[in-house]
Amino acid sequence: MRVQLTHAGAHVDVSASELAAVKEEFNRRHCFLLRQLIEPGLLARLHEKLASASFFNKTNADVGDESRMTSDPVGAALEFLTNDPKLFAFVRAVTGIGEIGCFRGRVYRLLPNTGQMSDWHDDFMYGRMATISINLSAGIYEGGLLQFRKAAEPDTIISEIHNTGFGDASLFKIDQSIQHRVTPATGTVPRTAYAGWFVQRPQFADLLKERLNTSGVRA
Question: Would you say domain 2-214 falls under CATH 3.40.50.300?
Fold first, then answer.
């Protein structure tokens, strides 16, 4: 199986038996880890740009704190890479969600030993249907576990992912009955990720037109 974002766009090569296995694991664990979603050569280029990127502290109401990257070519490149119809089709096949309008994400960090984290929440708003979080960390971070629990059983963690593989991505469906969180990072390496949501609307083309109009450029 190969699901990978490359300079030339998304490459998806998944057999029927491989897809069945992915769906079985996804339904059992409520998430799936995609190995090397970002092609290694492309990831190296992104790391070069990330080294000089600036971040600002951001508080997400009722969720937690993070350091978010300012507008930067890294975020723009990742936005184009993730808004690929081939990736959309794979995500829909695995998760069972409906038509995807676009993917909206951001690059953020959890700085170690600062208490930055995402507390339990379900993201069920703004037409969000599923999430991908791509590991962009420059090294192997400690802590920063992505954990899941049933809303009706808050004392029991039903699944967790420690996504430290370079360019690996965790995929999970947004569901009011399932909550998730990211625990604080520890050690010395920041947990850096490009994460966001597959949403019903707008269409990606409409989103780009809106941005062009806002910037004064005629589409």
Answer: no
